[in-house]
From TrEMBL, chain B:
It comes from the Bacteria. Keywords: 3Fe-4S, Electron transport, Iron, Iron-sulfur, Metal-binding, Transport. Its cofactor is [3Fe-4S] cluster. The keyword Transport applies. The keyword Iron-sulfur applies. Ferredoxins are iron-sulfur proteins that transfer electrons in a wide variety of metabolic reactions. InterPro entries: 3Fe4S_ferredoxin (IPR001080), Fe-S_cluster_ET (IPR051269). This is Ferredoxin. GO terms for molecular function: 3 iron, 4 sulfur cluster binding; electron transfer activity; iron ion binding.
């Protein structure tokens, strides 16, 4: 291929560019990203980077020498694409044609759809996805500041933990009955909540935000929450608008086949958080997976698909971690698929523990609270599962 | 090939161990140990280990 264009210059885009080189693409590589920064690591944004100012080079990704000669168009959004004509349009008005296209545009935070916020009045509203978001929030996280975190998923929980450690007064508001309920289940969620509560975080669960007020939030049950700062951690939306008009299924990210090719387009692949692909390790349902391990895994496979190789079936073992206070939570496999049958495999939830998530009696995911030493054993158990198709 | 791990950054995630067990291992206490001058034949595995390190603590030099 003469020219391959990668849209999105974060983990997925960077790894795709590197893997294209590793797989033998010697032609032109153009990487277009709307953020002004070179690719950097997002997990620290709700942890170290929120706690203290950190230089960009502490979070920038290590990049392979092979992509130094790529044409990096940073600070430039792609506004549209014509997949039949093989061309993408950039915000600066230029068009770039391609022989191969990699979609790596990831997600952006969903915003709260609640009325009542006059510009400049009421609490200052934040999300955490980019370095600039984290810097803006950090500037507000002084001791004693009243912070309301809306959403009790992993980003909400991590922001709550970091802010509490900095001395903020933290309230978590969420519709679920426990934090991280969907991926981890009720017992694990309850334990996590108790650990936050012991450190002084308040939880207002089972309710949503009805509106913003001059002094904070009013919730669906009428409770008012005083807040100087509100963090909206209520999930994400795939960045796919630029692909509209091409007849693709964009209902939840970009629908791909098992080789990460965009259906009907052998010259287009998708990687990372935005890609919706089946994982035969579990079933044939295409899903998006918002885990740090996935951009690297998908990039490796998608690069080869784009260059025309028909490799082995793609069946990554997703892995995820979260740091809250001194807790390390690690997840392997797909615990969310096994939420109906959760078993304690080791330890005690009130200290350190390993939980197994089962579907139809089969172990499909493992979540560890501490117990780091047991990690290789459980990972191997999941990888060696003989029910996984191998050809 | 030279492998450098920034031990201030490393949080003993152990992901590198899965990619290049010949070069990286966790000791009995779960702390990272590694070979700083591995054989060139292991380059792709080492590059992969550096890719998957969540803290991006590993650098590879020629
Ligand atoms: C605060 C935070 C903490 C996290 N912590 C963890 C953790 O502890 N553990 C874990 O496993 N995972 C964690 N994750 C998830 C992990 O960071 C993601 O899975 C990963 O960043 C996905 O990479 P990606 O390249 O697919 O997408 P993204 O990182 O979202 O990158 C997409 C890039 O494309 C750009 N873009 C979008 N639209 C356009 C356009 N039209 N034109 C040009 N560029 C565009 C975006 O600006 C962005 O730079 C965390 C994520 C966040 C936000
Ligand atoms: S993957 Fe990174 S953080 Fe984990 S043990 Fe290896 S070097 Fe350390």
């Amino acid at each position: 291929m003469r020219r391959i264009v990668v849209v999105g210059a974060s983990l997925g885009g960077l790894r795709a560019a590197e893997q294209l080189r590793a797989a033998g693409h010697a032609g032109e590589l153009v990487v277009v990203g709307d953020e002004p920064h070179p690719p950097y690591n997002r997990p620290p944004l709700s942890k170290e980077v929120l706690a203290a100012e950190v230089a960009l080079d502490r979070v920038a990704f290590r990049t392979r020498a092979s992509v130094a000669d790529a044409d990096w168009r940073l600070g430039t959004a792609v506004t549209g694409a014509d997949l039949a004509a093989r061309v993408v349009r950039l915000a600066d008005g230029t068009e770039v044609s391609y022989d191969g296209l990699v979609i790596a545009t990831g997600l952006r935070p969903r915003r709260l759809d609640a009325p009542g916020q006059d510009p400049g009045a009421g609490p200052s509203r934040h999300v955490v996805r980019t370095l600039d978001d984290a810097a803006a929030l950090r500037a507000r996280l002084k001791p004693e500041v009243r912070l309301a975190v809306v959403g009790a998923g992993f980003i909400g929980c991590e922001v709550a933990a970091t802010a509490r450690t900095l001395g903020a007064d933290v309230t978590v508001v969420a519709p679920e009955s426990e934090p991280m309920l969907r991926p981890l289940g009720a017992d694990f969620g309850a334990e996590l909540r108790r650990r936050h509560q012991r450190r002084g975080v308040r939880f207002l669960l089972g309710r949503t935000v009805a509106r913003f007020t001059g002094t904070g939030l009013e919730l669906s049950d009428g409770t008012s929450v005083d807040a100087d700062v509100v963090v909206e951690a209520v999930g994400s939306v795939p960045c796919v608008e630029w692909l509209e008009g091409n007849g693709l299924d964009l209902s939840d990210g970009v629908l791909c086949d098992g080789a990460l090719r965009v259906e009907g387009r052998p010259d287009v692949v998708a990687v990372g958080d935005v890609a919706r692909f089946p994982n035969p390790r579990y079933d044939d349902v295409p899903r998006r997976v918002e885990h740090w391990s996935i951009p690297t895994d998908t990039a490796k496979h998608a690069a080869r698909s784009l260059l025309g190789e028909n490799g082995r079936p793609f069946m990554p073992l997703p892995s995820f971690w979260s740091d809250q206070y001194d807790l390390r939570l690690q997840s392997f496999g797909a615990p969310a698929l096994g939420g109906g049958d959760i078993r304690l495999l080791e330890g005690d939830l009130s200290e350190e523990a390993v939980l197994g998530y089962h579907r139809d009696g089969r172990l499909v995911g493992v979540v560890m609270l501490g117990c780091g030493g047991s990690l290789p054993r459980y990972r191997k158990l999941l990888l060696d599962d003989t029910r996984v198709p191998t050809s | 090939m030279k492998v450098i791990v920034d031990m201030d950054r490393c949080q003993d995630h152990g992901q590198c161990v899965f990619s290049a067990p010949e070069v990286f291992r966790l000791d009995g206490a779960g702390r990272l140990e590694f070979e700083s001058a591995p054989d060139d034949a292991l380059r792709e595995a080492v590059e992969e280990a550096a890719d998957v390190c969540p803290l991006q603590a590993i650098t590879v030099e020629d």
